[in-house]
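Archive transcription. Copying these from loose printouts into the bound notebook so they stop getting lost. Printout 1 of 2:
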Amino acid sequence: MTTMPPLPSLDAVAIVERAASFTRRSLKGASKLQALKLAVSMMDLTTLEGSDTPGKINHLVAKALRPMPERYGCPPCAAVCVYPNLVAEAVRLAAGSKLSVASVATAFPSGQFPLNQKLEDVRWAVEQGASEIDMVISRGEFLRGNRSLTFDEIAATKEACGPAHLKVIFETGELQTYDNVRLASEIAMEAGADFIKTSTGKITPAATLPVSLVMLLAVRDFYLRTGKRIGIKPAGGIRQAKEALHYLVMVKEILGDDWLDPTLFRFGASALLVDVTLQIARMIDGGYQNPDSFSLP
């Protein structure tokens, strides 16, 4: 693990207040419509349930490729995310498109497996065709101060990914403090993460604006220090279009236009797609659609 510059303690009150300021910004008209479509293009549609079947993956991929009828001009989503045993089916269904197939790995969502088993999990998912791997850190080890192990596991997972991109999930709801979120961000980026991600979506709280702000600031500082652009993915609990717009405003202010792109910013929130597509339809058609007008992902 390389030596990182010392990190000052964060002012929690200031973080919360600054995050809240982004909720008071307003997008209207063409700018709002453009932002809503951009949000769709940044979504990773996810199904991570024990009841997942090839049929469910078929529906998920179809929804990701065509979130709305063509007349709305809505782009496809960025990726679908599934368990490793369903990767090959998702890859088959997405063939010929630009849709990425991501897979959770490393004993998702707990991370409580020996490292050799975690790495086999990653290698198998990549062999099945996954182009992105979403790993979870060992939160227990991190919280007991074993930061070197956290770094080493991320670095080993990155190596096991081969050509696939690595997203590192912190499960920020378990990290307890903003300082811990900031430190986990630094460790992950130093260890080779392509993306840092808030949550598994399996516990609450998941993604929040303050936590995501801390991670965005870490990404900004890492870029200024190294010249490397790292992506960020808030995941879990983002359900309304207005929330997505708050995140996009925050990304633009903290990181600039370069990060307003699916290669560097994603939403891990399948339920979000429902409200965003309804809002797009309202702006184009002049009235709200029934929520059942567009099938759930």
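Printout 2 of 2:
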Amino acid sequence: MQNPYIPNTDDDRRRMLERIGVGSFEDLLVNIPQQLRLKRSLRIPQLSEMELLKEMAEMSMRNREGTVCFAGGGVYDHFIPAAVGAITSRPEFVTAYTPYQPEVSQGTLQVIYEFQTHMCRLTGLDVANASMYDGASAAAEAAVIAMAVTKRHKVVVSEAVSPLFREVIATYTSGRDIELVTVPMKDGVTDLNRLEDAVDEKTACVLVAQPNFFGMLEEIAAIEKITHQVNAKLIMAVDLIAQALLKTPGESGADIAIAEGQPLGLPVSFGGPLLGVFAVKKDLVRFMPGRLVARTKDVDGKTGFVLTLQTREQHIRREKATSNICTNQALCATTAAVYLSLLGKQGLKQVALLSMERAHAAAERIFSVEGYSPCFTGPFVREFAVKTPHPATEVVLRMTEKGIVPGVDAGRWYKGMENCLIVAATEKRTEAEIDRLVAGLKEMRGSGVLSRM
């Protein structure tokens, strides 16, 4: 059912402004610096509901059909079984609100509890929360926890961690007495010598990704030793699909695991909404941000679900709050729980294996083309970095015009890597699609269309 298009008239806006005691809408923006305000008109046409729907339908027809996506970097084009949408679109899931009153929210709480259980199994850690906004905010909150627990103010992050995660961490820590140290890479993975130099008795935590942003596998055992020898906390950012094939953070000795949950049944959808996953060892549970649902029994011995350890500012004195995370991505978390329940352990492993097979097949084919070579050598799962003969940004632009998104331009975030394309594969990528990708790269190399760059 479509929502009606109900615009506010000038008189409606005037009366609302009068009611709140201001003369104009601009009076509401006084705290926003002038240089940050949009000065030009958005040129939005005045349309009726019928005209608007017609306009939107015509715009949607411009979407390119059959585009093949080899992009990754945290958001992946996985197959989503039809049952996922059929279940999560039911009114009891779509309309479920934040469970402030557990006694009337048992269904919502049970779904969250099942989501938490899935996340504990995937990460190998003791406790997972009800979810976060996205993987980046989960990474930042993990650093905050580590500082609170250790009473230290130095955060060490590998350069091979997603630059988007690192940007959010920098935002969280700005304006505070925190030392944020980025350890450079060597051959596509964290430079262990530089890491050892950076980690000291002032370090609260070390954050690494497994696999990292370039798809490479890190030497987690060595990183864990360096981190824990000074009693700092090890935070691992993981790929939840690849987790079906790799050691869990719990098995690797991590204290905290965080992840972007989008691959678990959520569409790419232009990059959102996303889903943050957050899990910890039991001794850190009282520092955990967000919500935590627990299973219990009522006075009659019946199983029930409750919100527990509610150390958010809505529930306790503000100065004792452990987080300002006031909600969870409930519908996205429900989607992930449904997706994992449908696939099961073996199904998830099959998705991971097929993704890895497609990625390695694509890498072998691409590296056989003259002018394209590995940026790094070493093991990878379903994502790899390709050195291109021309700027990767131009490769992405030209290939997308042909209906193929060939990967992610690493030069957007890494200086000196303008000719590095990060290619990802999922179980959806077929041999024919890989052929199209390789043929497109060959054509570009041979035609010289980029030689002017």
